[in-house]
């Protein structure tokens, strides 16, 4: 166990040497970069956030980047990131969390640090994949994205890239979906889906500033969620081409629906202008 | 202990943004030197916005966009009717409309740049603004100008409050030996410029007999109340 202290909720622990070092380096780095040093906790207290907070999209700029959707303590992050490696074999279970805790050098009982248990692991998986997708694009590791210019094509590529990240755990994803569909978990699950669709559209360069902002996010969320569901019904390690074809069909459906709506709006516009013209010809002051 | 350190660094690429702020090193995504352009790196430290201030800017940009959308649509609906009976007003209506379109484009760009959610009431405000413009235009030139006066009074007041709020942050930053970031400074000057142009529209409306509208007081008060309600709704929804 050494320097790693197990911090239980409601108990005061001592900051480990790792945390002290991280805090110190963070403080000096922040001072160099003209940012306020982080809050200093008393030595007896470990910063503990029991549950991830609901995502809230606020004003964002290069000077004021958006705060992370879910914040975990260092211990929680360590356990959860170690547990990710056990998901393909053990699924989103308490067993995977326990093995993750062991790998990270914690006691088995330290999974009590995660009040939501398996659902915390699911949220962490979703948030970490989203972070990985963002990092891939921002650090120019996504070659195929640069070869396309349209927002729709980029969106499709990003959805497929995110789905590829689920390939190793697709056979375990149905259990995760079952947990996510519990009434108490639905708000956070939908919040995470919204965060993903929002990130995908932002990375794709979508600049909608009207009602399309909502319809685009709804469309991406629907395509992604349905493709994810199709993935779970496939055989393990099945050919990804079927998923690509499915996503392509969904995008074609979206385009067709958009065209129908546009056509209907144009029709209403023509009828309206004709009615106004008729009214004017009858002497109405329109 | 060694293993723990190695594990943490191996997953840093995509898990840094999940760690708590106390332990998060100033990475690329969060408050880094890369975030600050070289020109500002040697001067005063930057004033960091808190959650409340970011929420304020979020709702301010959302409301401003909705307001400019409404103003543009009001002029679009008013112009044909006003110009038909008063052709000499065509240049004025065109000038005011073009300025409003410029303001709307400015806020559309800011909304996209700062990843702010537009108001959910967008389609409703579109219909309401078109109806308001059309109905006041049908009531005559004076009513159309009274509508402009009422709307611009509310919008001007609202911009004033926003400028005052951001300037209070600047004063607080100076007290702490810090400074606002260039984007915010530019935003304040944009708000000021747009406010002055809106108040110029108000002057034009008064010059063109907005006070002669029948009935003046009920019309202006109802429109101003509607604007205040729309602002409150757009701030939240």
UniProtKB/TrEMBL annotation, chain A:
Keywords from the named record: Lipid-binding, Mitochondrion, Transit peptide, Ubiquinone biosynthesis
Recorded GO CC terms: mitochondrial inner membrane
One GO BP: ubiquinone biosynthetic process
Main location: mitochondrion
Subcellular location: Mitochondrion
Domain Ubiquinone biosynthesis protein COQ9 HTH positions: 76-101
Pfam families: COQ9, COQ9_N
GO molecular function, one term: lipid binding
Family, per entry: Belongs to the COQ9 family.
Name this protein carries in UniProt: Ubiquinone biosynthesis protein
Automatic annotation (TrEMBL), chain B:
EC number: 1.14.99.60
Cofactors (names): Fe cation
A single Gene Ontology CC term: extrinsic component of mitochondrial inner membrane
Oligomeric form and interacting partners: Component of a multi-subunit COQ enzyme complex, composed of at least COQ3, COQ4, COQ5, COQ6, COQ7 and COQ9.
Family matches, as PANTHER family: 5-DEMETHOXYUBIQUINONE HYDROXYLASE, MITOCHONDRIAL, COENZYME Q10 BIOSYNTHESIS PROTEIN 7
Similarity remark: Belongs to the COQ7 family.
Name of the protein in question: 5-demethoxyubiquinone hydroxylase, mitochondrial
Organism: Penicilliopsis zonata CBS 506.65
Gene encoding the protein: COQ7
């Amino acid at each position: 166990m050494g320097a790693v202290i197990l911090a239980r909720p409601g108990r005061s622990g001592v900051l480990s040497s790792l945390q002290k070092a991280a805090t110190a380096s963070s403080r000096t780095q922040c001072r160099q970069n003209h940012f306020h040093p982080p809050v200093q906790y008393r030595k007896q207290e470990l910063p503990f956030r029991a549950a991830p907070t609901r995502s809230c999209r606020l004003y964002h700029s290069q000077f004021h980047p958006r705060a992370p959707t879910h914040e975990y303590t260092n211990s929680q992050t360590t356990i959860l990131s170690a547990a990710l490696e056990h998901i393909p074999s053990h699924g989103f279970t308490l067993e995977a969390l326990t093995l993750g805790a062991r790998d990270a050098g914690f006691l088995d009982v330290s999974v009590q640090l995660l009040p939501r248990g398996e659902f915390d692991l699911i949220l962490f998986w979703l948030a970490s994949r989203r972070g990985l997708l963002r990092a891939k694009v921002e650090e120019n590791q996504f070659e195929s994205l640069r070869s396309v210019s349209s927002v729709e094509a980029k969106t499709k590529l990003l959805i497929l890239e995110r789905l590829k990240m689920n390939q190793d755990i697709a056979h375990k994803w149905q259990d995760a979906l079952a947990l996510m569909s519990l009434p108490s978990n639905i708000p956070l699950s939908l919040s995470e889906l919204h965060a993903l669709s929002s990130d995908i559209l932002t990375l794709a360069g979508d600049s909608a500033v009207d009602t399309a902002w909502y319809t685009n996010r709804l469309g991406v969320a629907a395509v992604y969620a349905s493709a994810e569901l199709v993935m779970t019904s496939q055989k393990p390690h099945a050919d990804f081409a079927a998923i690509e074809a499915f996503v392509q069909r969904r995008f074609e459906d979206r385009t067709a629906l958009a065209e129908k709506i546009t056509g209907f709006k144009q029709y209403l516009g023509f009828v309206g202008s004709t009615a106004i013209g008729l009214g004017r010809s009858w002497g109405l002051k329109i | 202990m060694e293993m723990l350190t190695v594990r943490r660094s191996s997953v840093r690429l995509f898990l840094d943004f999940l760690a708590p702020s106390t332990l998060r090193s100033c990475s690329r995504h969060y408050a880094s030197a890369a975030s600050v352009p070289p020109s500002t790196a040697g001067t005063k430290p930057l004033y960091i916005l808190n959650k409340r201030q970011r929420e304020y800017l979020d709702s301010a940009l959302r409301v401003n966009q909705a307001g400019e959308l409404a103003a543009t649509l009001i002029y679009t609906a008013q112009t044909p009717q006003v110009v038909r009976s008063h052709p000499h007003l065509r240049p004025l209506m065109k000038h005011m409309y073009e300025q409003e379109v410029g303001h709307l484009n400015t806020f559309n760009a800011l909304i996209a740049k700062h990843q702010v959610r537009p108001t959910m009431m967008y389609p409703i405000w579109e219909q309401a603004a078109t109806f308001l413009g059309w109905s006041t235009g049908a009531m005559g030139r004076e009513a159309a100008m009274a509508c402009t006066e009422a709307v611009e009074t509310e919008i001007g007041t609202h911009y004033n409050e926003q400028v005052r709020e951001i300037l209070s942050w600047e004063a607080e930053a100076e007290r702490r030996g810090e400074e606002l970031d260039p984007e915010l400074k530019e935003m304040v000057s944009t708000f000021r410029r747009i406010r002055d142009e809106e108040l110029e529209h108000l002057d034009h409306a008064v010059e063109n007999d907005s006070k002669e509208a029948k009935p003046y007081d009920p019309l202006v008060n109802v429109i101003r109340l509607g604007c205040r309600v729309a602002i409150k709704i757009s701030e939240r929804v």
